[in-house]
Write a sequence for this structure.
């Protein structure tokens, strides 16, 4: 509360971005958690709420006769253009929001004050809703080829890895520990996805510390063990998701990539996905295009092209397809890494999983996948999403790109996904909102230290409770396009600009009638009709039965019983 | 002329057909006067029947004695025929070339085509101007149907009957016609029932460099204004282009002579620019490289989406003037047969729910395109693959259909027809067994006796099975004006036409079927529940015993 210099400003104008003449006048309130704009117009009283944690940046423009403009850019791509009557007030609002939107400690995050009124038992159930071990069991693990390792129980081998990890049956703790010493941040090769059908696996790690010539026997044994865990295959792929030049540059710093000569039976492959800095700048450029006031078609298309965004999305999807095909079609295991193995690696492994396994295309499956490949494997959510004041160079929309890849796939396979676009957008929003504890911190160890399970709530059970909002009416699990491996086209024209996310708040740009909502409503009605039909049939049966009995007894009575 | 003279080799065996996303077919290739046919002579294999008039261009390739002909069609499909024997291949190629570039209209397939279906309603009589006028008469008595053009002498590209203000006599019309490009004097295009405002269209005024004026023309258009009201003139050209037109005898309405009118200039491109745009767009879509930058820059460089945006923006402007400002509008460009019609027809889609039905849309195409004198034969003579130097070709009608598709995408429940109707119209405008899109204007169609000698596309469309195929399962009548968004983010590439042959549409087709299934199943259940309800009610009333339980 001490950060709020001014709790309330009157006569503030909220401009409509597309047609600035259509502005609204109202009162601006600053609370501990939200900025609230309440429209004054009699009878309307529409309210706009913006969570402080969603504020990405602010621009205070030069004051004019009409007031002092303050533009707020949000992490969910909402842009609010306020005009505050007096410079002084604008200054105070600006400073307050700057502080409020950039917590200095975890304790200030919204998830610790968000209280949906549930007791401790319910909270425990919320957090138990997703169980990663159950997902490994679903894959058929542990089995004779893969085992659960306790080597990282206290995060001693790798402090950014989860405690529970699956490793090849033949990988002994000394091999694991030895391998981890040869990998950035101790992130040794471990299992991400296992195909029950053909034993091929997707493994992930960070880059090896190979420099120009270093090698590590245990690391070589570790890869050998992974290869052996796929008995039908005589080689495996090692995929470095970085552009070759970046990987070579890393060698000078004692890092780098695997030398095919030192590892037996690996096929090494570079896949040029750019680094977090390129992705951050790319999204920034694309957002600038989205925010142009009335762009021409050329402005838009040129801007979209020069942002490079769709090119990067295509690169991630291409990489996912390469891995998914290796697993499903060749039956070959793949080890994926980038530098630290928590950005590109997370993207590529999870995209491959979505392509491979219909389970990850269900509501629960996608949650499990994000929980596994992103949350548990230490994607640095707090750094990448700028949850609190920190190094701006650490911020990058890596998870956005994953969600967008899923969306692009949904556009190509409208019947293959159980969830709808709204589901992806809601997840996106809450990754940034800090309302739930799921994405706070940078890895499992940090989350346990913060006591998030005890002190905050889980998004997943909230989404599950409201699943009706997130269902795709066209989903048909028995449909051929929903089965097995997806083989999407990656011709450039198959990639579309995701208006639903990046221009989400520009309502005027979206279709005025939603086919999906229409179909959902029909399905709901159909369900009611089915119930009515069943009950009518029942009544009908009862009635005709009754009528028959009555008639029968009447006849009998009329005739009179003999005797 | 006998077609046989042009067919050097009527039949070749062992020809292999390659089509995108379909298995190759080996069979016999036959050339007839109007078709290229490939048949495997086996059951269960689809035969290829291709109208020669659908062929835009061909390419020949030889590897040893195996020749290949790559056939590029006006509907943008590209197929390949592998023909054994160099001589056969050359013969087939030159025959196709000759047959697909016949100059004489009367040799076109529609004159030879005999319908294999029962004509329920003759489409040639479905949308007569006098019937359309009856609807107008029921709303207003301020207009009359003039026969001034009954012998096409006043305006060769107008139909014999046109709607004009009641108080303007035929002499005035004749004089006004001399002041407008190609005699296209202002006529009624649309009457907005809600507020009685109108949209008119015309050719450009022939003011020339010395500012000629024409009292009759002024009188004619002023007659459409209510006392004290102002109207809008929407000139589809930029002010610069309109200025330049003066040097060639054209021009625009000056403020001094038309004080009751406010003129707005927009920037819809002329036809040759549009043709180039189509060629570039299709080239971009067929580009095999997998580079995202290349695709986006080629898409941008084609300017196709820019044209879509500009046309829609202008149509929205016209609709806004009428519906929001409560003003009447006159639309023209240069000739008044291209951009003008795009604007007036799209404005009607926006304003008038009737135009969003299957039948209403046919009526719109008849009124605003065919009868209004859009030169289909010239514009649709060649499509995106043509090698010959473009003459009058331009995808003006295709752009209109694309704009309708954009609105349909934004209001998916407000149209009675589905995308497939728009695709069908695109196909038939370029190559067809029906006579509807032959010729450039009503006068030409009358001279060719099309109604007597050919079948109308509408005769085929307006049959129950076809109507069902073309109808939109999501349709729920929407009586409102529908305002599309013209933001670049809202305008999409029309995949159903431009990527139709480049990507498999299986998953999207399945999704469509699933959508139909959901809706049909719901209807089926509704019927069942209703009939059960009736049965129950009947049981209860019929059986007196049940009434006293």
């Amino acid at each position: 509360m001490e950060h709020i210099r001014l709790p309330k400003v009157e006569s503030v104008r909220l401009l409509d971005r597309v047609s600035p003449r259509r502005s609204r006048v109202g009162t601006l309130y600053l609370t501990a958690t939200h900025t609230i704009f309440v429209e004054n117009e009699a009878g309307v009283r529409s309210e706009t709420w913006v969570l402080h944690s969603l504020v990405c940046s602010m621009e205070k423009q030069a004051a004019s006769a009409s007031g002092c403009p303050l533009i707020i850019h949000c992490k969910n791509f909402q842009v609010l253009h306020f005009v505050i009557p007096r410079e002084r007030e604008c200054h105070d609002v600006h400073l307050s929001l700057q502080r409020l939107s950039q917590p200095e400690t975890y304790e200030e995050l919204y998830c610790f004050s968000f209280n949906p009124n549930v007791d401790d038992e319910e909270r425990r159930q919320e957090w138990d809703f997703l169980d990663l071990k159950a997902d490994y069991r679903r894959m058929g693990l542990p089995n004779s080829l893969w085992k659960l390792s306790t080597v990282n129980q206290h995060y001693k081998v790798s402090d950014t890895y989860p405690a529970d990890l699956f490793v090849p049956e033949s990988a002994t703790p000394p091999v694991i520990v030895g391998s981890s010493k040869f990998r950035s941040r101790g992130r040794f090769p471990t299992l991400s996805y296992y195909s029950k059908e053909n034993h091929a696996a997707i493994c992930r790690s960070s880059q090896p510390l190979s420099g120009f010539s270093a090698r590590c026997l245990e690391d070589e044994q570790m890869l050998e063990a992974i290869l052996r865990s796929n008995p039908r295959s005589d080689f495996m792929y090692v995929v470095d998701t970085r552009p070759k030049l970046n990987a070579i540059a890393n060698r000078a710093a004692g890092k780098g990539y695997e030398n095919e000569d030192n590892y037996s039976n690996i096929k090494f492959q570079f896949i040029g996905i750019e680094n977090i800095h390129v992705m951050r700048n790319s999204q920034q450029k694309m957002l600038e295009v989205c925010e142009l006031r009335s762009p021409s078609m050329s402005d838009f298309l040129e801007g979209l092209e020069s942002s490079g965004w769709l090119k990067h999305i295509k690169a991630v999807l291409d990489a996912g397809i390469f891995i998914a095909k290796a697993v499903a079609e060749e039956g070959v295991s793949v080890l994926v890494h980038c530098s630290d193995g928590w950005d590109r690696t997370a993207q590529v492994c999870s995209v491959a999983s979505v392509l491979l396994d219909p389970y990850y295309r269900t509501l629960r499956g996608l949650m499990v996948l994000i929980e596994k490949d992103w949350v548990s494997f230490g994607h640095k959510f707090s750094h990448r999403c700028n949850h609190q004041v920190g190094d701006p160079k650490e911020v990058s929309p890596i998870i956005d790109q994953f969600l967008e890849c899923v969306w692009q796939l949904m556009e190509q396979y409208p019947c293959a996904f159980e969830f709808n676009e709204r589901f992806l957008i809601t997840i996106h929003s809450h990754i940034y909102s800090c309302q739930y504890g799921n994405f706070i911190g940078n890895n499992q160890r940090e989350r346990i230290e913060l006591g998030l399970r005890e002190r905050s709530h889980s998004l997943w059970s909230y989404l599950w409770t409201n699943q009706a909002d997130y269902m795709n009416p066209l989903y048909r699990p028995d449909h051929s396009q929903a089965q097995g491996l997806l083989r999407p086209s990656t011709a450039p024209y198959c990639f579309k600009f995701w208006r639903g996310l990046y221009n989400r708040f520009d309502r005027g740009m979206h279709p005025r009638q939603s086919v999906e909502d229409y179909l959902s409503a029909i399905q709901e009605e159909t369900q009611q009709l089915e119930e009515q039909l069943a009950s009518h049939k029942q009544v009908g049966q009862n009635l005709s039965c009754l009528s028959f009995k009555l008639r029968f007894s009447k006849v009998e009575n009329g005739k009179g019983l003999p005797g | 002329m006998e077609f046989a003279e042009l067919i050097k080799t009527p039949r070749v065996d062992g020809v292999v057909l390659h089509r995108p996303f379909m298995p190759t077919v080996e069979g016999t290739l036959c050339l007839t006067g109007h078709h290229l046919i490939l048949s495997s002579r086996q059951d269960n294999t689809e035969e290829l029947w291709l109208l020669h008039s659908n062929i835009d261009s061909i390419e020949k390739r030889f590897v040893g004695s195996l020749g290949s002909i790559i056939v590029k069609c006006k509907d943008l499909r590209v197929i390949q025929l592998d023909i054994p024997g160099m001589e056969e291949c050359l013969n087939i190629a030159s025959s196709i070339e000759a047959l697909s570039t016949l100059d004489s209209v009367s040799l076109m397939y529609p004159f030879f085509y005999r319908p294999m279906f029962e004509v329920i309603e003759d489409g040639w009589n479905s949308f007569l101007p006098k019937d359309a006028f009856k609807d107008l008469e029921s709303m207003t008595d301020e207009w009359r149907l003039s026969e001034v053009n009954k012998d096409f002498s006043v305006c060769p590209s107008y139909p014999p009957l046109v709607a004009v203000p009641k108080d303007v006599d035929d002499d005035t019309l004749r004089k006004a016609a001399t002041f407008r490009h190609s005699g296209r004097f202002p006529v009624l295009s649309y009457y907005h029932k809600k507020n009685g405002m109108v949209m008119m269209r015309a050719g450009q005024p022939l003011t020339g460099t010395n500012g000629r004026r024409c009292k009759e023309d002024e009188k004619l258009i002023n007659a459409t204004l209510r006392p004290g009201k102002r109207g809008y003139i929407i000139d589809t050209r930029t002010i610069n282009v309109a200025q330049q037109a003066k040097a060639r005898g054209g021009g625009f309405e000056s403020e001094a002579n038309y004080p009751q009118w406010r003129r707005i200039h927009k920037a819809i491109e002329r036809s040759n620019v549009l043709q180039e745009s189509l060629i570039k767009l299709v080239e971009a879509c067929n580009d095999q490289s997998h580079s995202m930058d290349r695709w986006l820059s080629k898409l941008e460089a084609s300017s196709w989406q820019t044209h879509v945006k500009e046309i829609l923006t202008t149509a929205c402007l016209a609709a806004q003037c009428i519906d929001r400002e409560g003003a009447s509008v006159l639309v023209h460009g240069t000739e008044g047969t291209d951009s003008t019609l795009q604007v007036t027809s799209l404005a009607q889609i926006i304003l008038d729910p009737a135009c969003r039905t299957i039948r209403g849309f046919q009526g719109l195409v008849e009124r605003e395109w065919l009868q209004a004198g859009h030169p289909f034969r010239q514009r649709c003579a060649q499509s995106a693959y043509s090698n010959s130097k473009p003459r009058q070709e331009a995808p003006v009608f295709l752009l209109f259909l694309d704009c309708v598709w954009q609105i349909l995408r934004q209001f998916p429940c407000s149209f009675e027809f589905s995308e497939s109707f728009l695709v069908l119209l695109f196909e038939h405008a370029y190559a067809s067994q029906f006579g509807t899109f032959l010729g450039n204007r009503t006068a030409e169609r009358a001279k060719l006796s099309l109604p007597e000698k050919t079948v109308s596309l509408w005769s085929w469309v307006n049959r129950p099975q076809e109507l069902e195929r073309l109808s939109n399962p999501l349709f729920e009548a929407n009586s409102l004006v529908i305002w599309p968004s013209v933001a670049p983010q809202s305008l999409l590439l029309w995949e159903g036409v431009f990527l139709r042959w480049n990507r498999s549409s299986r998953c999207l087709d399945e999704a469509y079927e699933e959508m139909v299934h959901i809706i049909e199943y719901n209807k089926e259940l509704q019927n069942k529940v209703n009939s059960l309800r009736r049965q129950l009610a009947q049981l209860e009333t019929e059986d007196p015993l049940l009434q006293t339980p």
